[in-house]
From TrEMBL:
Belongs to the peptidase S8 family. PANTHER family: CEREVISIN-RELATED, PEPTIDASE S8. Residues 200-445 form the Peptidase S8/S53 domain. This is Unannotated protein. It holds the Pfam family Peptidase_S8. Keywords: Hydrolase, Protease, Serine protease. One of its GO terms (molecular function) is serine-type endopeptidase activity. PROSITE patterns: SUBTILASE, SUBTILASE_ASP, SUBTILASE_SER. One of its GO terms (biological process) is proteolysis.
């Protein structure tokens, strides 16, 4: 269960805002309210139509589609094992049997309910994730049976039937010194030193988040395609996703705002979280990852966390790995709350990013855990938000895009290297921090762009 957000306070400073937010049981999210610049963007209208869940949504081209992001053909892959049925289930209809003993009737319909999700995988390894919309257990059994029969007829294996899991943006807990006047991460980590060799040009990066403000002056023409899994549509966008996108790709040398660490990349805008509250489900995140892979992403950023994973999410991550895509995830903001694990970061393939402060210490909010791989700047990071504004935010959500930017720079500089090699390059060139070798606070250490690029 999620605790409700505490109030977020926004203080203007030359068209910037300092965000001070209360923490959540799982994760937190922020909304700034600093005044717009000379040409403010009006509040976009949202749609109420439900998202399409049985097939990935169509690509919505941005203002200037870029060649780095393009559809791919799925490589052949071995099918994962199908669900094992108990002896009591063996004589029942296959689809119906999947539901017995697995679905709690209380999750079907009613306030706050989440969908039942059926995941199947075809011969090429591409997962298909379908939501069961039934409101009773009998209806769910019937609908799952139909979906299972359809999958089998199409040569697909049903690998899981499960309830969906709610996730949220890994946002901005309270920070002690938010008034930092510059981008300390770029000053200390020298991303610009790699630009003569590679600024990320030719690399496609997907941001799975709350929707990027496509018309932000510092992100204009950066987004090649957009898609939505929230029902709001891509015309509705969030501060969180826009902040993450700016850390990665904000335009340099335009006399406006901030600078991205890998400004040459093309972006895919995969909106899996709602614009304002930053809420979504693991199914939406999974479908966004699959869409990003299908549309040419070479690196995917997920500044997202949930209290548990799901088979659908794991299948999507496996699909990214099978298609040579680097995946970066925020490690979690529960460092002051017992350090529970956060998904998708806790899975093996994503590079799980912890957060450090400007002085090189672990950010107090940064989750410690056995799955942490590296640490990166995440406290008091200034970047783009909606309405052509800028704000300081803190969180592992801000650490992850610094790692994503480094992965993009490395992919551009070393195009022959696989995703696994890029992943290894980032983790083996770190600056060892904390205990010698790997530790639960910094993973293998703090990223070192000069060595990794």
């Amino acid at each position: 269960m999620l605790m409700s957000l505490v109030s977020c306070v926004s203080t203007p400073l030359r068209n910037t805002a300092i965000l001070v937010c209360g923490a959540m049981l799982l994760l937190s999210s922020c909304v700034a309210s600093a005044p717009p610049v000379e040409q403010p963007v009006s509040t976009p209208a949202t749609t109420t139509a439900p998202p399409v869940t049985t097939i990935p949504p169509a690509i919505q081209p941005g203002p200037d589609p870029l060649s780095a992001c393009h559809p791919i053909g799925a490589a052949a892959a071995a099918l994962p094992p199908a669900i094992s049925l108990t002896p009591q289930q063996a004589g029942a209809d296959a689809g119906t049997a999947f539901v017995y003993g697995m679905i709690d009737p209380s999750v079907l319909g009613g306030p706050g309910s989440v969908p039942v999700v059926v995941t199947s995988v075809g011969r090429q390894g591409r997962p298909e994730i379908q939501e069961v919309t039934a409101s009773t257990l009998d209806e769910a059994r019937s609908e799952v049976a139909a979906l299972a029969s359809e999958s089998i007829a199409q040569g697909r294996q049903v690998v899981s039937v499960e309830t969906d899991v709610r996730v949220r943006a890994v946002g901005s807990p309270v920070t002690n010194d938010p008034w930092r006047p510059s981008q300390w991460a770029l000053n200390q980590f020298h991303f610009e030193s790699l630009w003569p060799t590679s600024n990320g040009s030719g690399v496609c990066v997907a941001v799975v988040d709350s929707g990027i403000a496509l018309n932000h002056v510092d992100l204009a023409a950066k987004v090649a395609a957009s898609a939505d899994w929230t029902g709001e549509g891509t015309a509705s966008y969030g501060d969180h996703a826009t902040h993450v996108a700016g850390i990665i790709a904000a335009t340099p040398n335009n006399s406006v705002g901030t600078v991205g660490a890998a400004p040459g990349v093309s972006l895919l805008n995969a909106k899996a979280l709602t614009a304002v509250s930053g809420e979504g489900t693991t199914t939406g995140v999974a479908q966004a990852i699959i869409w990003a892979v299908d549309n040419g992403a070479q690196v995917i950023n997920t500044s997202i966390g949930g209290s548990s994973g799901s088979s659908a999410l794991l299948q999507a991550i496996n699909y990214a790995q099978a298609n040579d895509v680097v995946l970066v995830a925020s490690g979690g903001n529960e460092g002051l709350k017992g350090n529970p694990p956060s998904w998708p970061a806790a899975y093996d393939w994503p590079i799980a990013a912890a957060s450090i402060t400007e002085t090189g210490e672990r950010s107090s909010f940064s989750t410690q855990g056995s799955y942490i791989d590296v640490a990166a700047p995440g406290s008091s990071i200034i970047s783009t938000i909606t309405l052509n504004r800028y704000a300081y935010m803190s969180g592992t959500s801000m650490a992850a895009p610094h790692v994503t930017a480094l992965a993009a720079l490395a992919r551009a500089a070393h195009p022959a290297e696989s995703a696994a090699q890029i992943r290894s390059r980032i983790m083996t060139t770190t600056t060892d921090t904390g205990s010698a070798g790997w530790d639960s606070s910094f993973g293998w250490g703090v990223i070192n762009p000069s060595a990794a690029g």
